[in-house]
Amino acid sequence: MKRGLLLIFLSAAALAPQEHLRVGSVDFFGYAGLDLKGIREALPVHGGEQVSEDEMPKVIDRLKQATRATDVATVCCDDKGGLMIYIGLPGQSNRNPPYNAAPQGTARLRRRLRISISSLWMP
Questions:
Q1: Domain boundaries along the sequence of the chain
Q2: CA angle (84, 90, 96) in 5-degree steps
Q3: CA distances to 8, 26, 79 from 60, in Å
Q4: Which of 75, 71, 82, 27 is nearest to 49 (CA)?
Q5: Could you report the per-residue pLDDT of 6-62, keeping only the tens digit for each?
Q6: Were 24 and a residue from 40, 76, 78, 108 both cysteine, which residue would form a disulfide, CB within 3.0 to 4.6 Å?
């Protein structure tokens, strides 16, 4: 009985419709001195197109390859529910921000106040 239910569940999960995201915008930073028009034309995805959630890791890899991006970040969602994609480029305005030295003290947050940074970001 359990095996039958497991097969039904797995079959239903495999046939479930994939969630599609509409790309609302693709924006750039760090692009001074680069041909932004040519870079936009080389993109594998553009505003208004649909992308399934399962495809997003491959789309991000393709964006990085097509643009020689220093960073690609996705943010959900704009005021119309579209996915926002931000691409960092290695142009003249690309700068690494200065960071403070790591803390050396013994002060710590109480355990219940700690949160995972990864839980704040959309994959």
A1: 18-93
A2: 90
A3: 33, 12, 22
A4: 82
A5: 444 444 444 445 688 899 999 999 999 999 999 999 999 999 999 998 999 999 999
A6: 78
Tokens representing residue 103 in the block:
């803390």
Structure tokens, 119: 């839980």
Ramachandran angles phi, psi of 28, nearest 5°: -125, 155
**Under a CB-based contact definition with an 8 Å cutoff, are residues 52 and 32 in contact?**
no
Token digits for 18?
A: 């994939």
**89 with 67: CB under 8 angstroms?**
yes
What's this model's pTM, rounded to 2 decimal places? Answer: 0.65
Residue 79, CA distances (Å) to 50, 82, 116 in order: 17, 7, 27
**Structure tokens, 91:** 């142009």
One DSSP character per residue, 74-94 reads: EEE--TTSPEEEEEE--STT-
Find where tokens 């710590």 sit.
108
End-to-end Cα spacing for the chain: 36
